[in-house]
Specification:
The chain is an alpha/beta fold. The longest helix is centred in the last third of the chain and has 18 residues. It is globular and about 65 Å long.
Length: 311
């Protein structure tokens, strides 16, 4: 790595081929918008499958850090919380590279050159994907996990550095699929890990790491959105659609060079509104499905005297 490099862009990819495809694609869009020139920042990928990524990235300058099964288990902690791994990866990246860091989930794509975004990562300013809601009003996010987290926050106090405190319901929940932190604030990750563990012990939800990160960063400095620099397609049907089309993309283009793939990735990113939902196959009913349905119908007849269904 060039000693003059000021930033690291870091990814974590482990587990499934769809995650690998998403991550390669994200890196290709970064490659396109920087014209393949990573001189101003390093790109680091932590993965459990170097063999998958090497054919795509060997000529790009991306640094691949091997992630072992043992490390994943260690980073998940005693409660086996998979989203805890991300924080440890960022922590390891700080320890090794000692640079301001922009972390991205794989399900992202760069829409423009990120130079302007990287410059905004300072000791006084962190970057996260977007501001989603608070614990007073979750808006469209008021699903069961929102109520469960709100209940846990109201019922419990937490402790950092021997000081006990309550977390205000006005705390903003930011999406942490994109996360920019200054190296000067690397120490905050210890607080994120500590608070994540306390939250997960009280309320074992998938998003407590995200909430802990949001709370720690917004109480230390300003948090800004990554805005239009990066698209994070993390929600339900959209992610399923993109995952399907990325599978087709790599099946069709897997033997092409990184330069050509990056051009194709850019073209893909410019026609997102033309993508169609993946085809669905009607589910064939199993014997168990039929038994459950029969019991439901029997119950309905017993309680109502007939069937009120659509059939």
């Amino acid at each position: 790595m060039n000693s003059a490099t000021k930033h690291v862009v870091v990814y974590l990819a482990h587990g499934t081929e769809s995650v690998y495809h998403q991550t390669v694609f994200s890196i290709l869009t970064l490659y396109y918008h920087t014209k393949g020139d990573f001189k101003d920042f390093a790109v680091v990928l932590y993965t459990d499958n170097r063999a998958f990524f090497s054919p795509y990235l060997s000529d790009t300058g991306v640094i691949i850090e091997d992630l072992t099964k043992e490390q994943i288990v260690e980073f998940m902690g005693e409660r086996n919380f998979i989203h805890r791994v991300k924080t440890f990866i960022i922590k390891d990246c700080f320890n090794k590279y000692k640079k301001d860091t922009l972390y991205l989930d794989g399900d992202t794509m760069f829409m423009v050159n990120p130079a302007g975004l990287l410059k905004q990562i300072t000791p006084a300013c962190s970057v996260m994907n977007c501001d989603e809601y608070d614990m007073h009003d979750g808006g469209v996010h008021e699903l069961q996990h929102w109520f469960d987290l709100r209940t846990a926050l109201k019922a419990n106090a937490f402790t950092l550095h021997t000081k006990q405190f309550k977390i205000p319901l006005a705390t903003r929940m930011w999406n942490a699929g994109i996360l920019g932190i200054s190296y000067a604030n690397a120490h905050l990750l210890e607080d994120v890990i500590d608070l994540t563990d306390q939250l997960y012990a009280k309320c074992p939800l998938f998003n407590v790491e995200q909430f802990a990160t949001s709370f720690i960063l917004q109480n230390h400095a300003t948090v800004i959105s990554s805005g239009d620099y990066i698209l994070h397609y993390c929600y339900g049907g959209v992610k399923s659609m993109f995952t399907y089309h990325l599978g087709l993309f790599f099946a069709q283009h897997k033997n092409k060079s990184a330069e050509m793939l990056s051009q194709l990735a850019f073209e893909f990113s410019q026609r997102l509104d033309t993508l169609t939902a993946p085809p669905t196959t009607p589910k064939e009913m199993t014997i168990l499905d039929r038994a459950v349905l029969r019991l439901q119908l029997v119950k309905e007849v017993a309680f109502t005297g007939g069937l009120r269904s659509k059939w």
